[in-house]
Amino acid sequence: MAPTALITGITGQDGAYLAQMLLGKGYNVYGVVRRSSHFGIADHRLRWLKIEKDVKFLDANLTDLSSLIRCVETAKPDEVYNLAAQSFVASSWQQPILTGNVTGVGAANVMEAVRIAQPTAHFYQASSSEMFGLIQEAHQNERTPFYPRSPYGAAKLYAHWMTVNYRESFGMHASSGILFNHESPLRGIEFVTRKVTDAVARIKLGKLNELRLGNIDAKRDWGHARDYVEAMWLMLQQEKPDDYVVATGRTVSVRDMVEIAFGHVGLKPADYLVIDPELFRPAEVDILLGDPTKAKQALGWQPKTTLEEMICEMVDADIVRHS
Ligand code: GDP
User: What's this model's pTM, rounded to 2 decimal places?
Assistant: First the structure.
């Protein structure tokens, strides 16, 4: 019989790529969606991948435990992926409590629903390199101490430790993937890579004449979301649950990433880039650099896409969108 997966955050970047991969493997895929007063479901990413008709949608909200229990009872999943969150770091200072409720307690609600309604399901928690924040080691691995630097990082850390505790206290097959930044043409426009590739596309097409950014000296370990969802799936196929860092092992500044994007269309950043103090954050994560050795050795996972390939793919997709 085909396995069944339940994905929260299915309308987001990772949810869309994960759903596509699981459908390709023959899974039944259920997606949890949060209804709003807007008409319909925000399924533009699923439509971009042409899989919106292949996913079964269930209504729930991460802050409403009974709705999540109902989803788990309906789907009877073999695997549950908790990808839903208020995931934009900068917004987490504007909405710190909501971020805690959704990104932190919401994850605990999903685990509680699984424990109550389908305790044998394998559970994946989308943890984040933002938990490392003010880094305590040059290369961050599974044993590196955490030091979150935003309400988002603090909320993700709570969810991460709850995952460890549900594994150790209740014997659940609960794994935490500590994913470093991962991007794609489906990345939200509020994140810096997509903000840049979208602007570069519009500048190239003559529809925009400047790009405003904040701290371009920040460095990130950026990978491709399509590669990273494979690591999520591999974690749930293991006999034992565990925690894994998923990263490329290379860190690049926002400044250099911007250079790659402009260079792809034959333009120079200096002609368009404006530094806007308003876009600096109350606290910054200056640099992240992951050590994915454990994921490589235990899961046989490795990233396939270089930063250069990914940024060019993103610029090209944004040119198509804006043409
Ligand atoms: P994050 O690592 O999850 O916060 O991912 P983001 O893509 O939102 O930000 C990555 C880095 O880019 C952070 O250090 C930001 O401060 C920096 N950055 C500089 N300018 C901007 C901007 O205009 N938007 C965003 N989102 N980030 C920016």
Answer: 0.97
